[in-house]
Protein 1
Amino acid sequence: MNVLVKRRVHVAAAAIISADKKQVLLARRPSSVDHGGLWEFPGGKLAPYETGLEGLKRELHEELGVEITRAQPLIRVHHEYTDKHILLDVWQVHAYSGEPFGREGQAVRWVPMEELVNYPFPAANLPILRAVMLPTEYLITGEEGDEARFDTRLERALQEDGIRLVQLRAKELEHEAYLARAKRALALCRQYDARLLLNGEPGLLDEVDADGIHLTSERLMSLERRPIAENKWLSASTHSRKQLDQAAVLGCDFVSLSPLRTTPSHPDVSPLGWHDFQQLVERAGMPVFALGGMTRFDANHARAVGAQGIASIRDFWK
Ligand SMILES: Nc1nc2c([nH]c(=O)n2[C@H]2C[C@H](O)[C@@H](COP(=O)(O)OP(=O)(O)OP(=O)(O)O)O2)c(=O)[nH]1
Ligand SMILES: [Mg+2]
C-alpha cells in the first residue's frame, strides 16, 4: 500500500453537556475496535451523503438511543493517525430526548468536567477536552486607573454577564501594582468559579497562583517551549498562520485570533473577516476565540465558522 495516501475519515462526535453544565457524557470504545478501551465522545463515521449534524443524529440514535433536538458546532480537529487522516467534527449537544444508554453494550458515563483529564482518550481528543472546558465568552480586562472601580467592573462582568474566563491585561501597570490587582482579581474570579489568566511573564504564576498565562504574540514567537506546567492554561494572541503554528508548537491550550473587524484601538490593521478567519481556524488544532470588534451577539456566528466563541474588552467592560 502507498503509505503516502492515507484514508480520510470524517467523524461526527458529540459533547453532551448535562443540564447543570457540570458534566459531560463519555462512552468507552469496545476493546475489539481501534483505540479499544479508550474513552470517547459518542459518534462515528459519516456516510458519504451525510452532513456532520445528520451523521451525528444517526450515530447518537444508534449508539445511545437519544434524539438530538439542539446542537451547535464546538470544534473541528484534523489529526494524522499512522493509518488515516481523521477529521473530528464535534458538536455541543444542548438538548435531546430520551435517556442515553450504551445500546451497543459499551460503557457510558457522566463525568464531571474537572475529572475529564483522568480519562484515557485517543490522541486526537486533547483539543476537544479543552473546548469542552472553555466557555463561549472571554473577557479581556480594559483600562481602569482606579482600583476600586476596576474591581466593580470585573465583578459586574462576572455577575451580570456570567463571564467565566478572564484575561488580566494591564500593560500600563508596574510589576507590583499588577500583582496587587491580580491577587484581587483572582479572589473575585474564585467567588464566581471563573478562570483567570495573567497577561505577562510566565514567572508571574509563581507570585499569583492564577489559572494560567496569556502570551502576547511577541512573547509567543520568542519562546522555544511551553513555559508553564501542563496543569495551567496557556493562551496566546495570534494574527496569522505562522503564529497559530507556533502556538501549536508551544502546546497552547487555546488562542485568540485577531482582528476579525477593524477596531478604534487598531484602525490601521487590516481585518481578517470571517472568511479568512474560518480558514485559519480550520487548521488551528485548538480552540480559537475571535477578537476585534466582537460582541456577544457575534458568538453564534463565530461558533458556526469553527471558533470557540468571542473575546472582547468593550462588550464586557462597563
Ligand atoms: N466517536 C469518536 N471517535 C473518535 C474520537 N476520537 C477519535 O480519535 N476517534 C476516532 C476513532 C475511530 O477511528 C473513529 C470513529 O470511528 P468509529 O469506530 O466510532 O465509527 P462508527 O461509530 O461509525 O463505528 P463502525 O460502524 O465503523 O464500527 O474516530 C472520539 O472522541 N469519538
Ligand atoms: Mg462510534
Note: The pocket of magnesium ion (ligand 2) is lined by residues 43-44, 63 (CB under 6 Å).
Protein 2
Amino acid sequence: MKLLFKNIKQLLQIRDNATISLKGSEMKELPKLDDAWLLVEDGKIVDFGKMEEIPAFEEVETVDASGKILLPGWIDSHTHLVYAGNREQEFVDRINGLTYEEIANKGGGILNSAKKLQETSEEELYVQSARRLEEVMKMGTTAIEIKSGYGLTTDAELKMLRVIKRLKENYPIAIKATFLGAHAVPKEYKENKDAYLDLLVDEMMPKIAEEQLAEYVDIFCEKGYFTVEDTHKILAAGKKHNLIPKIHVNQFNSIGGIQVGVEYDALSVDHLEVMNPEDIEALKGSRTMPVALPSCSLFLGIPYTPARDIIDAGLPLALATDYNPGSTPSGNMNLVVSLACMKMKMNPEEAINAATVNAAYAMGLSETHGSVTKGKQANFILTEKIPSYGFLPYSFGANHIDSVYINGKKI
Ligand SMILES: N=CN[C@@H](CCC(=O)O)C(=O)O
Ligand SMILES: [Zn+2]
C-alpha cells in the first residue's frame, strides 16, 4: 500500500544515511524542503521532493498536508514507563517542603514504587503500562526506551521486563528494554549492598540474558545509591552478557559516573544536571551521547542540564522525558522540546535535532529512525496548520499535532 503526502508546507529533518548524530554547531542546522511531497510504501519512506516536480503516482492513498509540517516522530530514549500506581502523595509532600532526597530517605521514592510493583500482578502492570504507551504515541513518540528498576527482586525485575517484551510484541512502536536492577538498594540489603550487587550480577543478569529480555544495562550512579566502583562492577558484568550501558549519572552530584560510562563505551549518559568542566572534557572524543531530561528538572525544581556548555564544547546532546512516577510523571516529548528552548537556551533547531536524530542514536536506532531519509521507517508527526516549526516549542503546553504515523500507518 502506498501513501502520498502532498502539499506539505515544510518537510523537516531531511538527511542522508550517513547522518548518525549531530554535534556542536551541526545541531543548529535543520535541513528542510518547502512545499513538498513524500511517498511511503510498506511502512518505509520511498522518496520525497518539491511539489513543482511531483511525479504522477497511481494507486496511492493521498493525504493533503496543506499548511502543515511533516517531521520525524519524537524518539524518547529514556523512560521508566512500566510502573505500578503513582506517587501523587510524594508530590504533595514536596509541595509542603520535603525534598526528593528526604522523601527517599524515609522509605518513599524508588522503594515506594518497588513495593507497589511487587504487589501488582503482571497483567495489571501490563494494562497500566499499555495505557501510558498509547498516551505517548498519540503525543508523537514513535520509538521509546523503557527501563526496569522498580522491581528490585529477581521476580519483580523479570516481571517488568516481560511486560516490556509484551508491549514490544503488541505495539508498532520500536521499543528497547534496559535492565536497571541497580536503581536503588532494597531495604533488606541496606547493610549489605554488595550482596545485592551479587544478586544482580550472578542471578538476575544471566536470566535476563538467557531470555533476551534487555538490550541495555543501567545503574543510578549517585551519592546514596550506587558508587563509581559499583558502576564498574555492573557495567563489566553487563558487557559479559552483551548488555550495552546507558546510565543515570550526575543528577544531584558529579562523582565520576560519566568517566566510567565513557570507559565502558556507554551508548548514553543521562541526566547531567550537575556538570563540571572535567565531565564535559571526558565526553570529548567518545561515542557516548549525553542525554538531558528537562521535564525532570521542571518537576523536581533541580538545575537544568547545561546544554549550552555541552553543545558549545562541540558535543552532541539528546533529549528524553524520563517518564516515571517519582521525578517526571509526564511522557510528553513536545513539552521536553519546549523546555529545552525555554530553560536550556537551545534553539528550536537544536532541540528538534536532539529529540530526533540524536535521540535515535541514544537508542541504537540511527539506521531506521530519527530523520526523513529514503529507506527509513515512515514515522512522522503531521502538525496542525501552524506558521513555522519554531511555533512548536514556542507555544508550549499545546502539542499542535494533527496526526501521528508509525510504519506508515496513522495511529
Ligand atoms: N534518578 C533515578 N531514577 C529516576 C527517578 C526514579 C523515581 O523517583 O522513581 C529518574 O531518572 O529520575
Ligand atoms: Zn531515569
Note: Residues 109-110, 113, 220, 248, 251, 296, 322, 324-327 surround N-(iminomethyl)-L-glutamic acid (ligand 1) (CB under 6 Å).
